[in-house]
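pasting for the record
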Amino acid sequence: MSATRKEKDSLGEVDVPRDAYYGAQTTRAISNYQITGRTLPWELIRALAQVKKAAAAANLRSGDLEEETAAAIMAAADEVIAGGHRSEFRVDAFQSGAGVSQHMNMNEVLANLATERLGGNKGDYDKVHPNDHVNRSQSSNDVMPTSIRLATLPILDRLEANLAELIGSLHRKGQEFRSVIKAGRTHLQDAVPTTLGSEFHAYAATINAQLPFLGMARSSIEQLNIGATAIGNGVNASDEYKIFVIEELRRVTGRPSLGAADSRYAATGSMYSFAQLSAALRNLALELIKISNDLRLMDSGPRTGLAEIHLPARHPGSSIIPGKVNPVIPEMMNQIGFQVVGNDTAISMAVQAGQLELNVMTPVIAKNLIESLTILENGTRTLDLLCISGITADVPHNRELAENSLGVITSLTPIIGYAAAADIAKEALSSGKSIKTVAVESGHLTGAEFDSMISDALPPER
């Protein structure tokens, strides 16, 4: 028996693997796009199947599909939604514009699965055709953007939940370290004293400030262009279908907040919503990079660095230096942040590359946006559980650094005057003594008064 079957598309005959559920157009795409060896993320494939299920149900309700055909397509889609037939989706992530190849890959797989359910054979599209039935009332130009939106939302849910946990952990560390006096630094030079708790509360605040931007992006992502078909005017889709397909998508996804875009024309030609979400992820990544950099600095040492905090030891740090332990989790978080910033650049270029009624750059948008969401989801959970929650502070060392910091002299000026404070700073710098020691020896303050002065100068905890 032949290992292939003959199928025909608009370009001619194609030899398709006999047992494959995909068909002629997918076979061409597999041959054409041998770029990375990686497909678009499974989240997108699953979302595509959700759209197909909703579209079949809507077409049934509007009278555009027979019940038997619609039921077979919906059952086939359910198999994919449940995680089945993953090996059938083999089109490279870098592929035809508008994701036509990925879209037809889904149409062909569902058509053949449905055909078998109805007693037919793979490649026999009389009962269920990829275009005439599975793709009824649809176009790649509304299916792919809608699928990207649906693919991002569950990951965004999990990311926001992880961020809430991370914010809580940072605040708990802020409370734990509320009395740990330490040297502040600006320009990487000595500045006025602060508390370690204040720094961790500030980290929590910077992450919390990103949540409204993610929320605004979510609201935009939830507005779908499904029903737009080719350019936004909904050609070949009935008015009833356009209403029903949104209702069915709410049912299939369990997301009642999904709605039709105010302008399906705009949502087909513009990919702004994806740029908005990517920008929010980029800004979150920038804050996470900054926090990770701070943690690495404060943990530096243990003998020759700041050594103000101790990060949990998670991995041996060197193949040559015995006993070395590196800040591996913040290092990982830095690299995630860099990737998210790079992905945002690619997404930005893709979003601006639309022409006239369509932006065809959806595959690269999908690849990078889903990757950014996924690595931030996993990275923030890892940062929280394997790093933040286990941080400890070296309280005596922090106090010693604070008292020895030239920045502490700033708190003396309202008490002893600028000139006397400057003399103390010069003496401390030349003698190597601490500011406290020189201030007490000079008779300007007692030790208790110096300690009280530092405490009074500290900022509120939040």
